[in-house]
Amino acid sequence: MSIIVGFVPTPAGEAALTAGIAEALLRQEELVIVNSARQGALVDKSVAPEDILAEAAKKAADAGVAARVIQPPYQHDLAEEFLDVAREIDASLIVIGLRHRTQVGKFILGSHAQQILMQADRPVLAVKADGGSFKD
């Protein structure tokens, strides 16, 4: 089994990575770091550059955790594609980072994190950038 982390190059993404590494070490499982871009998008600020992804994998390796990075493109629904990957790798835990958003922002844009929390068929660890966490 593996632990899957949704990683973006933000403080919330870094917090998720750190928590994922800790969980993978505790459970003695592989860490799968997922960073996706919308298929066909010319620019996507959530896509991490190769050096950042290599650094994330190195951070896991330095902690004694086997890790791999995947960047599956998504076409329609990021959360659903992410959950599909979790099922494909038979993840024992999903780790995501949360960021503060206004109520209006949540209403207009929706929330990938909320969708993952509500639709996941396995445990989800949601981590705030300030180090707090909530378990579902």
Description:
With 136 residues, this protein is an alpha/beta fold. The protein contains 5 helices and 6 strands. The protein has helices at residues 11-27, 50-62, 78-88, 103-109, 112-119; strands spanning 2-6, 30-34, 67-70, 91-98, 124-128, 133-135. The chain has a 6-stranded mixed β-sheet, sandwiched between helices. Strand 1 (2-6), helix 1 and strand 2 (30-34) form a beta-alpha-beta unit. Helix 3 crosses helix 5. The model has no long low-confidence stretch (mean pLDDT 84).
**What are the segments in which pLDDT stays under 50 over at least 5 consecutive residues?**
none
The major β-sheet equals: 6 strands, mixed
Assembly level = single chain
Give the SSE string. EHEHEHEHHEE
Strand order of the largest sheet: 3-2-1-4-5-6
Number of helical regions: 5
Number of strands: 6
Mean pLDDT: 84
What is the helix fraction of residues, given as a range? 40-55%
